[in-house]
Amino acid sequence: MPVTDVTPDIDNRTLTITADFAAPVERVFQVYADPRQLERIWGPPTHPATVVDHDLNPGGRVNYFMTGPEGEKFYGTWLVESVDAPKGFAFDDAFTDDAFAINADLPVSKNVFAFSEYQGGTRAVYTSTYATAEGLQQVLDMGVVEGASGAINQIDTLLAG
Question: Are 96 and 89 in contact (CB under 8 A)?
Fold first, then answer.
């Protein structure tokens, strides 16, 4: 399992997940840069993602939905702020409706995905910051730790293929 640490910090409104992969930094970044690879790892195994639009450039947007076991769909979007390929990228992640309009009733997270060389492979540090402690607590209650960890743990299989 590549996830080595999960640290929710209510006081600082952050959730940090660290994972190690036996692949070069460039290869791990490519998982996020390629929409067909991204949809194999974005979302927990029980809720596979479909990437509808993918523009991983500053000012770009990635629109996606995840499909649950009963066929229910959960929509979201990334608003890409910056990209420093292959070292990482930053974006806001928001829940949306089925037209990808942001749902203002649910928390938006500011995310920094950072990739660096580590022991011959890659260490990935995923940091999500919420505007309020209540927003972080809301997504923790929704199962974000289990969902994100399950999603990240799928990357090893993709990298091995």
Answer: no
Query: Could you tell me the pTM of the whole model?
Result: 0.95
Q: How confident is the model at residue 161 (pLDDT cuts 50, 70, 90)?
A: confident
The DSSP line for 106-136 is: S--EEEEEEEEEETTEEEEEEEEEESSHHHH
Half-sphere exposure of 81 (CA within 13 A, CB side): 11
Each residue of 23-42: pLDDT tens digit? Answer: 999 999 999 999 999 999 99
Rounded to an integer, what distance in angstroms lies between the CA atom of residue 11 and that of residue 33? 32
Selection from 4, 15, 18 nearest residue 137 by Cα: 15
65-77 tens-digit pLDDT: 999 999 999 999 9
State residue 58 phi and psi, 5-degree precision. -50, 130
Residues 6+ apart with CB under 8 A from 101: none
Location of structure tokens 């910051």 = 129
Are 112 and 90 contacting, i.e. CB atoms less than 8 angstroms apart? yes
For the chain, how long is the longest CA-to-CA vector? 43
